[in-house]
Amino acid sequence: MGASRGVPVSEVLELIAAARAAAGCTDRPVVALATVAAKAAEPGLLGAARQLGVPLRSFPAAALAAVPVPGPSASVAAAVGTPSVAEAAALLAAGPGAELVAGKQKSAPRGRPPRATCALAGPAVTDTGALTAGREGAATDRSSAADIVMTSPNPPRRGPGRWTAVVGDPAPGSGPSGTKETS
């Protein structure tokens, strides 16, 4: 998530709720918020993470700049050293192979300009339904701060008849494992 100095917690939480609703993923848990390291100590982001009960992860601007995104911004690059905060942070926090569930959205406070951006990312799903990323594969290059990135351990369904994988669930068709007694 991207944020301007002084963004209120309420604006951040409203944006996250709106982005999740628009993407149709309100039933999936928010696993983390992520941002650029320069915004990691922003009280609005920290407060939102605290209220959601999730970590706030941060990434150096150079790491975010290396992530290809659909909506890079020259003005963001000039301000924080990376053309994307929300989308790139979401993808890095979601782990290797992650996909955007929803691209960058801006907050919509009444009577003033937006002060937050949000993107949603989750683990990629192969044609067989296997996860390619998730909490276990989350980026290990973490700093002490974070911008808002939302990930979900439950990937979107892909194609007709696909089952939705849940991290920790047994593989389809696998039965209970037996025990072997030795004497």
Short characterization:
This protein has 183 residues and is of the alpha+beta class. Helices cover 25% and strands 14% of the residues. Helix 1 (9-23) packs across helix 2.
Describe the structure.
The structure is a single chain. The chain is α+β, with helices and mostly antiparallel strands. It has a domain at 2-123: Nucleotidyltransferase, domain 5, CATH 3.30.420. 25% of the residues lie in helices and 14% in strands. It contains 5 helices and 5 strands, in the order E-H-E-H-E-H-H-H-E-E. It has helices at 9-23, 43-52, 61-65, 74-80, 86-94; strands spanning 2-3, 33-36, 56-59, 99-106, 116-122. Strands 1-5-4 form a 3-stranded antiparallel sheet. A two-stranded parallel sheet has the order 2-3. Helix 2 (43-52) links the parallel strand 2 and strand 3. The relative contact order is 0.22. Residues 1-121 form the CobE/GbiG C-terminal domain. This is CobE/GbiG C-terminal domain-containing protein. InterPro entries: CobE/GbiG_C, CobE/GbiG_C_sf, Precorrin_MeTrfase. Residues 130-183 are annotated as: Disordered.
